[in-house]
Each structure stands twice: as structure tokens, then as C-alpha cells.
């Protein structure tokens, strides 16, 4: 029987290049530690206690807070997930109304369920012809808050998985103008604010609670993250909930990993980020030669008149160059087949495959060899693929592209997620689920934002989307049964 440890060691010795998280990229020249067993302790004398930190762990979180310019910061060892759950619970009371960007990660929905909240969804902007979402418009938020003045908390994801940054300063002003707090899931933005080539962090833009996964875009171990506060008055409540959602035995190895990462940034961030942006710029320049695939970066969005630096129209305030988004929308192949080709032929492992694009995650630990390898592979593949409209103008794919902007379709919410999860359920084949009410979450993983939330009515587009995702080889979480073709719906719905 294959054993996990042996498999991990064997994989690390194969020469796959990681265009995915964790941000340390297994780059031994950038990160190293002694044998982890030698420093694996629990809360022994002199080493503080994460749940009541007043010693070395408090000092570390103060350093984090100084570096990012927050009022207070907390170390997370259970990922951004724990910070998101704690942030939601600390800023609300049961049954409160919250406005939630519909493209939020599932952990946000889990917080809503745990706190029994009433979510009102704000939808990210759809961009015609482009398979990724735009940002959240402040004016839309304002309209919703006028209609729902009793809203307590706004939760948005910025940057999105693909690096789209919303206008946080405006969103915070709107939220505050209506007496609500703004929480930003900045899980993919722990590297923001260190160099002018990258967006600024939501912390400097006035968000109240900001959560960042250190492990995603910086050199740190998986599960490490930070919660930042821009105001002192909810800190007691945050601490209470963090001690519920975080392990009572937090790993000192993980926390030491955060320490190493913060030290690196304190000492060397200008040089590290300057080198990094230079490598990225070279990569994007090489991509100008693509004929069929399209890199969706800031310059492409500017060229298309989609991004104008003011967050207008599509709600895009900035774009993070660290995410390499490659659209295959206008080609004969889908995201999964491109991902497979890169993995099998070029030994490059990407972060995410979606229907119409794939995504590479980069960091200060990526090497020139890594960027050049990806550029060369993409240019080679690009020569061999065909456009979406092939010979005689016949489609080379089975689906109509505009049908698949799934998260952006208003869905009928019949129950709140928490109420839906308390209902009796039955299991039905996906093909017979039309107009039934979902009893569970269904999401593509990654990115992990739900296509269906408990309490939402299943419509035709959702069924089509799930079928296309499955037949394109993508991982759909939440389907059940041996063939993974059944869904849990509310009994009698
Ligand atoms: C946007 C977003 N938020 C939150 C999370 C959860 O972060 P973590 O894995 O650090 O718990 C993820 C994970 O992928 C994410 O993509």
C-alpha cells in the first residue's frame, strides 16, 4: 500500500514545477529549517500561548501589525478559514443581515451557517467575452444598503482568485456611511503593499477586518494566515472566536514559519519584490506572441476598455500581476486539457483549471527557470490548437460560452443557508433536480466558491454548468453517490 509520507518525498524529488501554492514553491534557496521535530513543542514555559498571547507570540503579531500597518494582527494556524469564521461571528449577532459577494469562498458561507445569518448577495460584475468576474461596484453596495439599512456586515473577496481587486476605499466609505463594517477576504493578497507593481492592501484602504493567507502568496507553510483589524473595538470578540476556531494546540512549526516569512519581508522586501516584478514583466512580454490563447492581465483589460483605474463599469480597481490567468475561451481546448498537457508533457503543475481558463500562482520564490518553462510551454501549445470557431465557422466546443457565467445569475433563495441545512433531505439524480431546493453546497474546487448554496433553487443553467464541468474533467465538490451524479435536495421541495 502506498504511504503518504513516501509519496510526498517521491513527489518532491520529481521535477514538477509548482505554479501553485504554497508560496514557498519548495524553493530551498529561499526557505529552509532544521529538522521540524527538533522545534515541535507545545505551550511550554517561555513560549507564550496563542490564545492569550503576551510574550513571544504577541511580539510576533506586533511585528506583523507594524509591517502591514494594521491596528492589531492575529496569527492563524487554521488558514484564512479560521479568520473568516471568527471575523463573521465577531461582527454579527445571530439572524443579522449581511451583504455577501456571491463569489466568496465557501468558508464565508460556513460562517453564515454557523452564525445563522441572513445573507443578501451582491454580484461581481460580468465582463462580456472574458471568463472571469470583475469587481464589486460601490454604487451597487450603496443601493443595497439603502434598501437594507439594518445590514451589519459586508463581506467581499478582493483580490479574487484571478487577482481582480475591488475599490476597497470606496466600499469601506459606503459601508461606514450606513453604519456597517467591511470585512475583506484578502486570502490571495498577503503580498500586497510591498511594491508599487502590486496592488495595495485592503488594510491601507480602510477595511475593518482583513484576512490573508500567508501560505498562498508568500513563503510560508500551508495553513498559515493572518487576521488584521483596523479598529480596536472588536478585538475582544475576535479573540473569543479565534479561540473557538483555532486549535488549542497550535503548531509552533507553523508559527515559526510565519516568523521566518515576516523576517524575510522585514529585511529584504524591496529587493525581493523588485526581482519578482521584473521576472513577471518578462514573462508577460513573452506572452505577447500568443495567437489563440489569451493572457488576462492588466494590460489586456486596459486594451479592451475594461479597466480604467477608477473601478468604474466592471468594478476593477486594480489587477494583481502575480496571478497568471490564461484564457482558452476562444480556442478548441478547455482549461482541464491545457492543465493536463502542461502537467504531463512539460511537468508544470498549475493552481487551477476552470472550464475556459487556467491559473498559475506565482510568488517571490519563483525562479527565472520556472517562468521561462511556462512561457515556452504555452507558446508551443498555442501553435497546435485551433480557434473556438473552426473550419466553416463551426464551433469546436460543445457549449455556448455566455451560458457559463454561473455565479452571476441571480438564484432564487428559498431558505437561508442555515435553515436549509436543518431541513429533511432526499437524494435525487442531478438530471431530475430541476426546480428542487438544494440542501448542500456544490462548488468547483478550486476555487471553492459555491455554485449552489443550501436553500437555493436548482435551475437549468446550474445543471448545464455542473454537467459541462464534469465532462470537462473538473472536480465538482458536493455531488454524491458512487458516480457523483446525485444531489441532496430538501424533501418535498
Ligand atoms: C478566496 C479565498 N478565501 C479563503 C480561502 C481559505 O483559505 P485557507 O485555505 O487559508 O483556509 C481560500 C482558499 O483557497 C480562498 O481562495
Structure description:
This protein has 493 residues and is α/β, with parallel strands linked by helices. It folds into three domains: 36-261, Aspartate Aminotransferase, domain 2; 269-393, Aspartate Aminotransferase, domain 1, CATH 3.90.1150; 409-490, Orn/Lys/Arg decarboxylase, C-terminal domain (Ornithine Decarboxylase, Chain A, domain 4). Helices cover 34% and strands 16% of the residues. The chain has 14 helices and 20 strands. It has helices at 4-13, 56-68, 79-91, 106-114, 138-147, 168-177, 214-217, 235-245, 252-286, 298-303, 335-346, 368-384, 417-421, 460-471; strands spanning 17-19, 72-76, 97-101, 118-122, 151-157, 164-165, 181-185, 209-213, 225-229, 294-295, 318-319, 323-327, 348-350, 352-353, 357-361, 425-429, 442-444, 450-452, 476-477, 486-490. Strands 2-9-8-7-5-3-4 form a seven-stranded mixed beta sheet, with helices on both faces. A four-stranded antiparallel beta sheet has the order 10-12-15-14. A three-stranded antiparallel beta sheet has the order 18-17-19. Strand 17 (442-444) and strand 18 form a beta hairpin. Helix 9 (252-286) crosses helix 12 (368-384) and helix 11 crosses helix 12. The longest helix is centred in the middle third of the chain and has 35 residues, at 252-286. The protein starts with a helix and ends with a strand. The model has no long low-confidence stretch (mean pLDDT 93). It binds pyridoxal-5'-phosphate (PLP). Pyridoxal-5'-phosphate (PLP) is lined by residues 79-81, 105, 107, 157, 161, 185, 187-188, 213, 225, 447-448.
Amino acid at each position: 500500500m502506498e504511504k503518504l509520507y513516501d509519496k510526498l518525498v517521491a513527489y518532491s524529488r520529481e521535477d514538477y514545477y509548482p505554479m501553485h501554492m504554497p508560496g514557498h514553491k519548495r524553493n530551498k534557496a529561499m526557505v529552509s529549517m532544521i529538522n521540524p521535530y527538533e522545534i515541535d513543542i507545545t505551550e511550554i514555559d517561555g513560549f507564550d500561548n496563542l490564545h492569550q498571547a503576551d510574550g513571544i507570540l504577541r511580539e510576533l503579531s506586533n511585528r506583523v501589525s507594524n509591517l502591514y500597518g494594521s491596528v492589531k494582527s492575529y496569527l492563524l494556524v487554521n488558514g484564512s478559514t479560521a479568520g473568516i469564521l471568527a471575523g463573521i461571528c465577531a461582527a454579527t449577532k445571530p439572524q443579522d443581515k449581511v451583504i455577501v459577494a456571491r463569489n466568496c469562498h465557501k468558508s464565508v458561507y460556513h460562517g453564515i451557517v454557523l452564525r445563522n445569518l441572513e445573507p443578501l448577495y451582491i454580484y461581481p460584475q460580468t465582463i462580456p467575452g472574458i471568463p472571469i468576474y470583475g469587481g464589486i461596484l460601490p454604487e451597487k453596495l450603496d443601493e443595497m444598503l439603502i434598501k437594507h439599512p439594518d445590514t451589519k456586515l459586508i463581506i467581499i473577496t478582493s483580490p479574487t482568485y484571478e487577482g481582480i481587486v475591488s475599490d476597497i476605499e470606496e466600499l469601506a466609505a459606503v459601508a461606514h456611511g450606513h453604519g456597517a463594517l467591511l470585512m475583506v477576504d484578502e486570502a490571495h493578497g498577503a503580498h500586497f503593499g510591498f511594491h508599487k507593481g502590486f496592488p495595495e492592501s485592503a488594510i491601507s484602504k480602510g477595511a475593518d477586518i482583513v484576512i490573508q493567507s500567508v501560505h498562498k502568496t508568500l513563503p510560508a507553510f500551508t495553513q498559515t494566515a493572518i487576521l488584521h483589524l483596523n479598529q480596536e473595538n472588536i478585538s475582544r470578540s475576535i479573540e473569543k472566536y479565534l479561540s473557538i476556531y483555532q486549535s488549542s494546540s497550535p503548531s509552533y512549526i507553523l508559527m515559526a514559519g510565519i516568523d521566518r516569512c515576516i523576517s524575510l519581508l522585514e529585511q529584504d522586501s524591496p529587493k525581493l519584490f523588485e526581482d519578482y516584478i521584473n521576472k513577471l514583466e518578462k514573462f508577460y512580454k513573452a506572452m505577447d506572441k500568443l495567437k489563440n490563447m489569451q493572457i488576462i492581465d492588466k494590460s489586456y483589460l486596459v486594451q479592451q476598455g475594461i479597466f480604467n483605474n477608477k473601478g468604474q463599469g466592471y468594478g476593477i480597481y486594480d489587477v494583481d500581476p502575480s496571478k497568471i490567468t490564461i484564457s482558452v475561451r476562444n480556442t478548441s481546448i478547455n482549461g482541464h486539457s491545457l492543465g493536463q498537457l502542461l502537467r504531463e508533457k512539460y511537468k508544470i503543475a498549475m493552481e487551477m483549471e476552470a472550464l475556459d481558463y487556467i491559473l498559475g500562482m506565482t510568488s517571490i520564490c519563483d525562479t527565472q527557470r520556472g517562468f521561462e518553462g511556462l512561457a515556452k510551454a504555452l507558446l508551443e501549445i498555442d501553435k497546435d490548437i485551433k480557434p473556438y470557431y473552426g473550419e466553416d465557422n463551426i464551433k469546436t466546443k460543445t457549449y455556448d460560452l455566455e451560458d457559463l457565467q454561473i455565479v452571476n445569475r441571480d438564484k432564487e433563495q428559498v431558505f437561508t443557508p442555515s435553515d436549509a441545512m436543518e431541513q429533511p433531505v432526499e437524494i435525487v439524480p442531478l438530471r431530475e433536480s430541476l426546480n428542487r431546493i438544494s440542501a448542500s453546497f456544490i462548488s468547483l474546487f478550486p476555487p471553492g466558491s459555491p455554485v449552489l448554496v443550501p436553500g437555493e433553487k436548482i435551475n437549468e443553467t446550474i445543471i448545464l454548468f455542473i454537467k459541462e464541468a464534469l465532462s470537462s474533467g473538473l472536480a465538482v465538490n458536493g455531488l454524491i453517490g458512487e458516480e457523483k451524479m446525485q444531489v441532496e435536495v430538501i424533501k418535498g421541495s
